[in-house]
Amino acid sequence: MFGIASRRGTGSIFRAIKCYSTAAENTPLKVAVIGSGPAGFYTAYRLLEKLPGTQVDMYESLPVPYGLARFGVAPDHPEVKNCQDKFNEVAQYPGFQFFGNVAIGKDEETLVALKENYNSVVFAYGSSEDRQLGIPGEDLPGVFSAREFVGWYNGLPEHSGLNPPLEDAEDVVIIGNGNVALDVARMLLCNLDKIKSTDITEESFEVLKKSKVKRVRIVARRGLLQSAFTTKEIRELVKEPGSAMEPLEDEYIESYKPFIPLLGRATKRLTQVLEKAPKENEAKTGPITKSWRLDYLQSPVQFFPHPANPKLLSGTKFGKNTLIQDNITSPATVLSTGEEIIHKSELAFRSIGYKALPLKGMDKLEISFDERRGMIPNDLGRVVGKSDRGYGEPLYGLYVAGWVKNGPTGVIATTMRESFEVAETLIEDYYKNRLDTSHKPGFEGVKPVLKTPPVTWDDWLKIEKIENERGASLGKPRSKFTDTAEMLKIVE
Ligand code: FAD
Ligand code: NAP
User: Would you name any one GO CC term (predicted)?
Assistant: First the structure.
């Protein structure tokens, strides 16, 4: 019934709903939010602000909150992490409760219990897996996903033991050229003095200190105009002291020249930043010991093991592509030329996007899930049911926000805007009497199915206090715990 898997909002819903006044108005809602990243917090904030009296219970699989704002955003972007101050404010609302260390949908009972014990459930659990290439050699120890590397330097417990063998590698390839790929490149290339006083984990900092990585190659399957990174982020890499961008191959520049008069301002600026990179190199004053380059029109084909060191690769084979594009507004099609090239690379990082998985219990609740795109199909944030003809009708009372709504793209600002719209969709359904507004037990009804006692917001503040104290003694904003058991010990 819905032609598109995810319809985005118009922003005008809230103005419309103010006119409704129904019997539902006096019944306080109990809402469960799954996930404490930006989507969870911004949805909660809007609900608490616009529907006074609402109880929002946030369930988080980790003992600590904030999702990718804590475990994704790079340590040298502390200003981006300031959104955590806003989230902490949200947690002060009397109607807010946090239940950490509770993975909803690890077993069927937890999700079903949320549905039964709340008037409404918001899925905001992000995308905690990564996409695979499906090519030979992908499981070799020298191939890392950007997601695990990022989690490692940011202290995500799941990846705390990753320790990539950077001390043995000089050449690295990164597959994909989104902003995550640039974060990975920057961490491999950056001046360590710059990140020493950030919240990077001490363990990963020590490994980066021993790194021998000298050359980083960022490889995209399409052309320069299709680059997934943004201008601000590529400029930051171009300006990185201590490393130089190799000049772009003429063929990449030639391929977009015919389109220059047609380019929008943002894309024009991006091409200018890249073309001026050699000048930036000349302006750098300190020693330049590392280099990086952008390659285009190459698709990964195979990873080869290193003959002597099982932890490393010897190289990565790519197939060359050509781009068929009639004009700037038509989509570019990639065609293989049949040529292949092997880039020397002791390590490879796959940075081709994150992916959400369905939760156990979704089938029982007849919730659709798009496995290919890794997202919950929805209509303006309303979860839709299953149907023989594709997606079914909206399941009023179930909503989805953030990366698990749209797929793994978007920055915190876009996640915020869209989460507000999802909250307003929920509020609209409330005023239109589409929700079951009968009394629900909320957390008290869910408690019996939980396997471990949850971590409360006050518990998290205890963990945070110790992280901040440890950080202060090291001249850092915080020194993160990277082990769940250690965090739980503090709480106990
Ligand atoms: P998430 O932030 O992933 O939050 C989901 C939460 O749900 C997590 O806390 C997770 O632990 C929890 N969860 C998962 N499964 C369950 C479960 N079963 N039960 C309970 N809880 C669960 N944006 C910017 O604006 N600036 C940046 O510099 C920036 N850097 C980024 C760097 C990286 C490496 C990445 C990957 C993204 C970056 N982004 C940045 C984008 C930004 O992080 C996302 O837009 C945003 O975090 C998406 O929010 P979310 O709440 O949908 O998902
Ligand atoms: P992304 O921007 O979607 O980039 C994914 C990259 O992987 C693209 O280059 C894509 O190429 C490539 N790719 C996908 N499948 C591939 C395959 N099978 N083979 C080869 N290449 C493949 O994703 P991301 O880098 O993970 O970033 C996710 C979101 O987080 C983005 O919105 C990003 O802006 C945001 N983010 C922001 C910041 C920041 O603001 N500083 C930092 C990090 C992340 P195609 O384009 O050809 O598909």
Answer: mitochondrion
Q: Name the residue at shortest CA distance from atom 27 of ligand 1.
A: 73
Per-residue model confidence as pLDDT tens digits over 96-142: 999 999 999 999 999 999 999 999 999 999 999 999 999 999 999 99
CB 108 within 8 A of CB 116: no
User: Does the annotation flag 180 for ligand binding?
Assistant: yes
For atom 31 of ligand 1, the residue with the nearest CA is 73
What separation in Å is there between the alpha carbon of 400 and the centre of ligand 1? Answer: 14
| Contact predicate 228/180, CB 8 Å | no
Quick one: tokens of 476? 């850092």
* CATH code for residues 30-128+356-455: 3.40.50.720
End-to-end CA distance of the chain: 50
Instruction: State in words which class domain 131-353 has.
Output: alpha beta
- Ranges of beta strands (E only) in 388-470 are 390-400
Greatest distance between any 2 Cα atoms in the chain: 74
Q: Atom 23 (ligand 1): residue with closest C-alpha?
A: 411
On whether 135 is known to bind a ligand per the annotation, the reply is: no
Q: Which two tokens stand for residue 368?
A: 């659709």
* Domains 30-128+356-455 and 131-353 alike in fold: no
The alpha carbon of 32 and the centre of ligand 2 are apart by a number of angstroms equal to 30
> Where do the structural domains in the chain lie, given as residue ranges?
30-128+356-455, 131-353
Nearest CA to ligand 1 atom 47: 68
Report residues whose beta carbon is within 6 angstroms of any ligand 2 atom: 133, 175-181, 183, 220-222, 226, 228, 233, 299, 351-354, 408-411
Q: What is the DSSP string of 359-382?
A: PTTTTTTTB--BTTTTB--EETTE
Helix (H, G, I), strand (E, B) or coil at 334: strand
Q: What is the pLDDT of residue 15?
A: 37
Q: Is 222 annotated as a binding residue?
A: yes
Question: CB count, 10 Å around CB of 18?
Answer: 10
Rounded to whole angstroms, the Cα distance separating 458 from 479 reads 19
Atom of ligand 1 nearest to the CA of 125: 7
Of 4-13, 295-304, 418-427, where does mean pLDDT reach its minimum?
A: 4-13
* pLDDT above 50 for 319: yes
Name 255's Cβ contacts closer than 8 Å, sequence gap at least 6: 223, 224, 296, 297, 323
Q: Helix (H, G, I), strand (E, B), or coil: what is residue 190?
A: coil
What's the pTM?
0.95
Beta-strand relationship, 129-130 and 143-145? unpaired
Nearest CA residue ID for atom 22, ligand 2? 352
CA of 362 to the centre of ligand 1 (A): 21
Q: How many Å separate Cα 298 from the centre of its chain?
A: 25
Question: What single letter denotes the amino acid at residue 142?
Answer: G
